[in-house]
Amino acid sequence: MFESEETILTAYGHVLVNVYGNKKKYPIFTFHDIGLNAQDNFNNFFINDTGDLFGTGFCVYNINAPGQELMANEFPTGYRYPTYDELVLMIEEIVKYYDVKSFVGLGVGAGAHLMLRYAVKNPDKVDGLILINCVETKIGWLEWAQEKLNVELLKDFGMTKFTENYLLWHHLGQCLWECPKIELQAFRRYFETRPNTGNVAAFINSYLDRSTIDIQNQEKPFTVPILQIVGDHRSAFVQDARYLHSLLDPKTSELLELFECGSNVLEEKPGKVAEAILFFLQGMGFVSWLNVHDAVKELVKKDEAPIEKKEESKTTDTTNQPTVGDGGFIENILII
């Protein structure tokens, strides 16, 4: 799949967009999670793990939040980071820049919340949503106080062990002792050397100050098709995903819980995630010619291999990124 980069000037600063595929094909817009950037979250999945599988029918636009790319300059004095509602407006600018009429949105964590917020405001522009580790509600008071401390530590002292452990919990789950050691070590190395920690703190702070997305009190029922993907008990977000699922239209939404998987589903189970996404897209009428089972058969087999063995075969350049993430609907709720 061909990759290119474009920097787009928006009302909230310059935004880097990684583009995978031919722009004449159907668009998928993605948004990454806190502490990472678009390449960290999606490069392995779309390039190394699934190859050209998505490039056959889609063009993927990976949006970086302002200042989150590794080589980004530090924000100037007085810069105010956009709120989550303003980040929605930023996405609108990017969609207009590419002259896209409608698209499928894919988000992870903080990016999933943002994509859902965008879709609720612009349901006519979103044909479907794929949400990984999505939290629909605002943050609770106790969690808010703890994470505000993390933000201040990042701004004043850079990456501390306290903040690093918070990010590990967010990205890998609440049972770190059950995570594959190579995955845990790779994330630790990445966060320990992460530049521009003040920029990272600004994005985290914006996410912490989010409001609840009011899905049920819209002028029209919210019926955008949604596929949610989350890990099982190791994930920090499984209860949030179940709660969101209870608010959605059961005719157009589904929840996939991946067995023996933490929060980092794109890296731990890329085959099963790709399979679920492709079936979801086929249910919407895309790539109807593709035999999904055959296309992902080898990928799903690799999901069952120990992650230590999978990592040994990777050829990704890890100089500027971690060795880890960087016909009809499936069942309404599925645990596999």
TrEMBL record:
Gene3D superfamilies: alpha/beta hydrolase. Residues 306-315 have a biased composition (Basic and acidic residues). Pfam families: Ndr (PF03096). Residues 306-326 are annotated as: Disordered. InterPro entries: AB_hydrolase_fold, NDRG. It comes from the Eukaryota. Coiled coil: none annotated. Belongs to the NDRG family. This is Protein NDRG3. The lineage of its organism: Eukaryota, Metazoa, Ecdysozoa, Nematoda, Chromadorea.
